[in-house]
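Still learning. Show one?

>
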Amino acid sequence: MKRNLKLKEKKIEQRELFSLKYGKIEFNENDIIYMVNPLLGFPYLTDYILITSEEHLPFYIFHSSEDPTVSFIVVDIKIFFPDYKPNFHKRDLKVLQAKSEDELKLFGIVVVPSNPKESTINLKGPLVINLEKKLAKQIILEDDSYNIKTPLLKE
């Protein structure tokens, strides 16, 4: 006799965030990226969402799902700095559950002042994300050739 087994589908909880800068943001539990170590200056925040919008590409918003006041503008570093190739420790790969650096996406936190042409990007402390595993870490590089406030746009 054959038995029909119905697997229960895991219901994904929808959530809303009322961002002070961006208004209502809807997301679900699968969208959350967990910081294995908190971002510098934000020791109590570990859950973030990466928000994309066609009109703002190549920029993204890395927004805390725990605090409606905390968000960062980030960009894929390789878009502006194609030769960017920092060295990571093997332990960084391990905590991000990556077998190789190819599984990781490197984002730089961007600061946009009143004159956007003077925007800077943090290349010294990239935000490294394993998008498949939803794990992230800000890695502070030992290499002194990278700066915290690197001009984003070349003259």
